[in-house]
UniProtKB/TrEMBL annotation:
It comes from Natrialba asiatica (strain ATCC 700177 / DSM 12278 / JCM 9576 / FERM P-10747 / NBRC 102637 / 172P1). Belongs to the protein kinase superfamily. RIO-type Ser/Thr kinase family. GO terms for cellular component: cytosol; preribosome, small subunit precursor. It catalyses: L-threonyl-[protein] + ATP = O-phospho-L-threonyl-[protein] + ADP + H(+); L-seryl-[protein] + ATP = O-phospho-L-seryl-[protein] + ADP + H(+). Its cofactor is Mg(2+). This is non-specific serine/threonine protein kinase. GO terms for molecular function: ATP binding; metal ion binding; protein serine/threonine kinase activity.
């Protein structure tokens, strides 16, 4: 698990950030940035680099290796620090709060500015990176910084998609993005998986969810990871989140993903509420209606 770096920010100094962004810049060329190159990348004197390396190592923001040459690389904590600091500098975030969720591929925290927000650090590539990292000889180049690249691309993608969907589709309002982090509106309510609906609410909620899936399709996207864990429910209705893997509707497999999303949504409701969701409700037929633009409602 990646440590929360928020409490570190106050004790870090301007030059610590220079050092971290120097390492980040060097990592565009190789995973392990040579010690000698750091003064240039970080715009710091040699003595200053030595002092800052010590401080950043001690805080677990960077890692050092000495095989073949002395080199440094960012830890995810160091990358988080750079992203968080950028978001604070431009006033997107003014207060840091508690964890909202730890997903397979992200860490989500409550943050604040003028209103409650959610900060999602993308971690795609993290597990892979750790596994590969253990076995690989440290000098091999390229593909190396793939965890940084993969996580940043996922964040950019999720932010772009939210911008396309909001406000026509019920998704969290996107606020800002930096490196592998996105900031969005904090959703009210709870995960659909943790709700127990009254019998007379079941079809209404399922219909709301399918309507949002249909609206997303009209706007140009299929979520492609639809489940009761990626939907929030409150008094105002449903919110669909977690969009980095979404595919555009002109993608060759879009309609297949749409069918699968509907199978997941309808399947979940059917398993949980067999009395309310009849066998007549055919998710593939609903998917076909959505794809052809003729979907209206599942209710009579
Ligand atoms: N905008 C938000 N407001 C409140 N809570 C949120 C928000 N975004 C995410 N969360 C919480 O964080 C958790 C993880 O978020 P999300 O599903 O986007 O990440 P993930 O790592 O991609 O998930 P997965 O485990 O599905 O791969 C969610 O289940 C939810 O509880
Ligand atoms: Mg999720």
């Amino acid at each position: 698990m990646v440590r929360n770096v928020a409490e570190l920010l106050p004790e870090l100094e301007e030059q610590d950030f220079y050092l971290l962004s120097g390492v980040e810049q060097g990592m565009r060329f190789s995973e392990w940035v040579q010690r000698e190159k750091l003064p240039k990348f970080a715009s710091l004197t040699d003595e200053e680099v030595t002092y800052r390396l010590e401080r950043c190592l001690k805080r677990g923001l960077i890692e050092k290796k000495t095989i073949q040459y002395e080199g440094y690389t960012l830890q995810f904590e160091g990358y988080d620090t750079l992203a968080l600091r950028a978001l604070v500098e431009r006033d997107t975030i003014s207060e840091f709060g508690s964890p909202l969720g730890v997903g397979k591929e992200s860490d989500v925290y409550e943050v604040r500015s003028y209103k409650p927000l959610a900060l999602k650090y993308h971690r795609e590539g993290y597990t892979n990176f750790r596994e590969v990292h253990k076995e690989r000889d440290y000098t091999s180049d390229n593909e190396h910084v793939s965890w940084m690249y993969t996580a940043r691309k996922a964040a950019e993608r999720e932010h772009d998609i939210l911008e396309d969907l909001y406000p026509d589709v019920a998704v969290p309002q996107p606020i800002d993005q930096n490196r592998h982090a996105i900031v969005m509106e904090k959703m009210d309510g709870v995960e659909l998986s943790r709700t127990k609906l009254e019998a007379d609410q079941v079809l209404g909620v399922l219909d709301l969810l399918i309507s949002e899936i249909a609206r997303a399709y009209e706007t140009g996207y299929v979520h492609a990871d639809m489940s009761e864990y990626n939907v929030f429910l409150d008094e105002d209705g449903v919110t669909i989140f977690d969009w980095p893997q979404a595919v555009p509707t002109d993608h060759e497999n879009a309609d297949e993903f749409l069918r699968r999303d509907l199978q997941n949504a309808v399947g979940y409701f059917r398993r949980k509420y067999p009395q309310q969701v009849s066998d007549e409700l055919d998710s593939d037929a609903v998917a076909a209606e959505i794809a052809s633009g003729s979907f209206e409602t599942i209710r009579e």
